[in-house]
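Hmm, what's this shape?
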Amino acid sequence: MIYGPSYVSLDYALSHHGLIPERVETVTSVTTRRSRDFETPFGNFTYRMLDGPRYAVGAVLETAGTTTFLMASPEKALADKVWTDKRFSGSRVSDYDAYLLDDLRLDPDSLTRLDRSRLRAIALAYDSPKINRLVRCLNRLKEAAHA
């Protein structure tokens, strides 16, 4: 933990959970403090700010060897990515297909397996039209996959 409170999220967590095909070198996290970047002998670390209610829901404990740390669930990592990506406005539900599948290169099958109740809880905490549209898009993708 270089900068806390924080938990691993965004691109690093999306890769960790197998949602994106790329290997991510920079450890990406969210924090309640201001956004910062660190270069250390152990690697590069990026922190993006989320306010308290948005920060507080969706992280789970992970263990690597003897180290325990907080990592965003797949659902939380995706919501954090959509929220912090300023180049994507997400003003219409129809915008999300191209963004999720083409821009982020998310695995469509993984998207249909996301936990819907966790997504709803995250959307409530975010209280954001952008995240509500994400959830609607994911629900539509799941329904289409089961049709």
Notes: Residues 129-145 form the longest helix (17 residues). Residues 6-145 form one domain. The chain has seven helices and six strands.
